[in-house]
Specification:
The structure holds 2 protein chains of 2 kinds.
Chain A lengths: L1 H19 L6 H47 L3 H14 L3 H16 L4 H22 L2 H25 L4 H8 L2 H34 L5 H8 L1 H4 L2 H12 L4 H10 L7 H25 L3 H9 L4 H30 L2 H6 L6 H12 L1 H31 L1
Helix pairs in contact in A: 1-2, 2-3, 3-4, 4-5, 5-6, 7-18, 8-13, 8-15, 8-17, 11-13, 13-15, 14-15, 15-18, 17-18
Chain B lengths: L2 E10 L2 E10 L4 E5 L6 H9 L6 E6 L2 E2 L10 E4 L11 H5 L10 H11 L15 H14 L4 E5 L7 H16 L4 E5 L2 H7 L2 E6 L2 E7 H6 L3 H8 L5
Classes of the chains: A mainly alpha, B alpha/beta.
Chain lengths: 393, 233
């Protein structure tokens, strides 16, 4: 009985295809679509038996949507056939079906970016599913679903941009000695800047976390000022203070032969200025997170304030401060606005990229930009990994 | 008198201790009793030297220590919830204070023996110890520096009954060995178990002081109202 129905269905489909589709599909395509439809029809019997009439209507409705969007609107019968096969196969597995739907949506509606969109949305669904499996909380999944939009906003431009460059152009960009020099400058100056902030910022952060004094609130807001000030303004302000014509700049040049404008000192000054809030804020939070009682206990055991700071506060805040260092370093590395004002030369990588963009345009700059992003990302990941190792210990 | 506190005043974040005076003889077991928020911990911190007092004096062994910093007072302090250093091992915690004075290994051995925690010395992580073990390590840490006075901030709170009994026995034998102890508590049972003298602290001022029997037999009005409530009646 079962096989009779199947055979009857297939013959019906074949006749239908032969007469109805012959006029606007060639023979090869027509037979592929016929195979897909046959699979769909046979699978439909199984779905009807296993999942009932209600599910079966969903099954038919899905087919209808595929037909309208892929076959009629998108006019690609082969892709339609492929999707029908996948749809039939995945229909009873909801988890896989969602991936298929994401793939179809990406291909039909966002054809130029379909791969990037599919990867991102696939990841999105994967994580949502994981969170639900772990927590069984719809609330958390919803919150995550909203939050992940933000992740997409950040990663999509970079993913898309990175996928546009060939390996060949990357290789030739990497051999560019000017770029190598600029990259070295960037790493060198940003490490020194971070060190300067570390030495000056940590004692300050400790006081901010441990003491109450009048004017503390104002000071607390001043820390974040560099984030507020536009980078170019920061550069101009530093140039006015430290430039060759300013009293301070002149004094430094005459007595110590130190020039800030167009020199490494200028780069470091600008980087310290713009990136200090990140380290200082992290350090304050880290110190505030330490129970004051631990420091009190250390004092009662005979350890003076300085020793207590070294043996208790600093090790316990270490991971937070290290994180602040990473953030500040990354910020210093990516600084461009103030550097263009105070020290266009010696060129740092970010200024170099801007310079290339102005001179040669988008296509020339792209591989260099990607190289910069990759090298920074690598350093960032390595530093973060070190931090996790430290926390584990 | 071994420890003498006279007319001590201290304000801290909107709370104030007012006119605190009492004396303790050497080797005494002294309880500061009071409901939550009475200023007991603030008083202990002032004795330990963690806060500078606004007015008044603290004498220890005949010497005025009012302006001596905490690290020079040589007072052992068992903090509420132990305050063990989470980044150090058990051994490093106990040995912490020994760096600043000549270590007396026989004394340390005796403490470890008394508290029965020798087998914990090899443990690296503080976090996974039980509440009773942590309390004993904290106690060993503050005893290792050979303190002249031991301050205990609710030493029996947050412990299971067995650990409670254990720590109680330890404190009793410490007292028998001649240690001067100030024990802060809000529990009348603890006061009955240990003390020879008691100060009752209510709202930052001394409501009553005397021996345990005096406090139990002749409680003042404010004490009955604010601290025991109706349960004593």
């Amino acid at each position: 009985m079962n096989s009779l129905v199947s055979i009857f269905l297939i013959i019906l489909l074949a006749v239908f295809h032969l007469f109805f589709f012959r006029s606007f599909l060639d023979l090869g395509t027509n037979s592929v679509v016929l195979c897909a439809n046959a699979l769909f029809a046979l699978n439909g019997i199984a779905v009807y038996r296993k999942a009932g009439f209600h599910k079966f209507m969903h099954y038919l409705f899905g087919y209808l949507l595929l037909f309208i969007f892929v076959f009629l609107l998108h006019k690609s019968p082969l892709i339609f056939a492929l999707f029908v096969i996948l749809f039939s196969a995945f229909f009873l597995n909801t988890y896989l079906l969602v991936y298929l739907i994401i793939l179809i949506l990406a291909i039909v509606f966002l054809t130029p970016y379909w791969l990037q969109i599919f990867l991102l949305l696939g990841l999105y669904y994967f994580l949502c599913h994981r969170i639900y499996k772990n927590t069984f909380s719809r609330f958390l999944v919803t919150m995550f679903a909203i939050g992940f939009i933000f992740v997409i906003l950040i990663t999509f431009p970079i993913l898309y941009f990175a996928s546009q460059v060939t390996f060949q152009s990357l290789l030739s960009a990497a051999k560019n000695t000017d770029f190598q020099g600029a990259l070295l400058n960037s790493f060198f100056t940003s490490v020194i800047s971070t060190f300067v902030i570390l030495v000056l910022g940590v004692p300050f952060a400790y006081v901010m976390a441990r003491c109450d004094f009048s004017g503390k609130k104002i000071l607390d807001n001043l820390i974040d000022l560099p984030i507020l000030i536009p980078q170019t303004v920061a550069g101009i302000a530093l140039l006015i203070l430290l430039g060759p014509k300013s009293p301070l700049g002149e004094f430094m040049y005459k007595n110590c032969h130190l020039a800030f404008a167009n020199g490494y000192l200028g780069i470091i000054a600008a980087q310290v200025f713009v990136s200090s809030p990140f380290l200082i804020r992290s350090a304050i939070n880290a110190f505030e997170g330490i129970d004051q009682k631990l420091e009190d206990a250390s004092r009662c055991l005979g350890s003076g304030p300085f020793n207590t700071f070294l043996r208790i506060s600093l090790p316990l805040a270490g991971s937070g401060i290290f994180n602040g260092c990473i953030l500040s370093w990354a910020r210093a590395l990516s600084e461009v606005g103030s550097l263009m004002v105070i020290a266009y030369y010696p060129m740092t990588a970010s200024v170099f990229i801007y310079d290339e963009f102005i001179k040669y345009g988008l296509s020339e700059t792209q591989p260099i930009a990607i190289l910069l992003v990759t090298s920074c990302l690598w350093a960032f990941i390595v530093l973060r990994w070190i931090r996790y190792q430290l926390i584990k210990k | 008198m071994f420890l003498k506190i006279s007319q001590l005043d201290k304000s801290w974040k909107g709370f104030s201790l007012r006119d605190i005076s009492f004396e303790i003889k050497e080797g005494g077991y002294f309880t500061i009793l009071g409901p939550c928020g009475a200023g007991k911990t603030l008083l202990l911190n002032a004795i330990a030297g963690l806060y500078r007092v606004d007015r008044g004096n603290i004498f220890l062994g005949g010497r005025d220590i009012t302006f001596l910093p905490a690290e020079k007072r040589n007072i052992g302090y068992l903090f509420q919830r132990d305050a063990l250093f989470p980044h150090l091992s058990v051994k490093e915690n106990i040995y912490y204070g020994l760096r600043y004075r000549r270590p007396d290994m026989r004394h340390l051995d005796a403490i470890l023996e008394l508290l029965d925690i020798k087998d914990l010395l090899s443990r690296r992580d503080i976090v996974n110890l039980s509440g009773g073990q942590m309390r004993k390590i904290a106690l060993a840490r503050s005893l290792a520096i050979k303190p002249r006075l031991l301050l205990l901030d609710e030493p029996l709170s947050f412990l299971d009954p067995i650990s409670r009994k254990n720590v109680t026995d330890n404190l009793k034998s410490l007292h028998q060995d001649g240690m001067t102890i100030i024990h802060v508590s809000h529990d009348i049972q603890e006061m009955k178990t240990f003390s020879d003298k008691v100060v009752v602290l209510v709202d930052g001022a001394i409501a009553q002081q005397g021996t345990v029997n005096e406090i139990l037999n002749h409680p003042t009005q404010i004490l009955t109202e604010r601290f025991w409530g109706n349960s004593h009646a």
